[in-house]
């Protein structure tokens, strides 16, 4: 859940692109009303937003309305989402080798 108590005051973007390959996915997050309606900022990616992968999947709350999001927000297929939320996406075996 995103709250204003630990992010400061005012409204916030979900993310801004450092470059055109920036990737952020919010998955099943309860978003409060501090999220700006556009959701995302292109920042250094400028107009090169084709390769930016910003997405939201299954989010709830007052800030989760995707009706006014930037047009370049990605809409992931079920297969893409399954790949991203599967532990194998971040763990190719290194996790179980930790002390
Ligand atoms: C989201 O957060 C609000 C505010 O705390 C709460 O009232 C609501 O029940 C939460 N929704 C879900 C789906 O957790």
Automatic annotation (TrEMBL):
InterPro entries: Pectin_lyas_fold, Pectin_lyase_fold/virulence, Pectinesterase_cat. The keyword Hydrolase applies. SUPFAM superfamilies: Pectin lyase-like. Its EC number is 3.1.1.11. It comes from the Eukaryota. GO terms for biological process: cell wall modification; pectin catabolic process. Pfam families: Pectinesterase. Keywords: Aspartyl esterase, Hydrolase. The keyword Transmembrane does not apply. It is an enzyme of class 3 (hydrolase). Pathway: Glycan metabolism; pectin degradation; 2-dehydro-3-deoxy-D-gluconate from pectin: step 1/5. Residues 10-91 form the Pectinesterase catalytic domain. One of its GO terms (molecular function) is pectinesterase activity. Belongs to the pectinesterase family. This is pectinesterase. It comes from Aegilops tauschii subsp. strangulata.
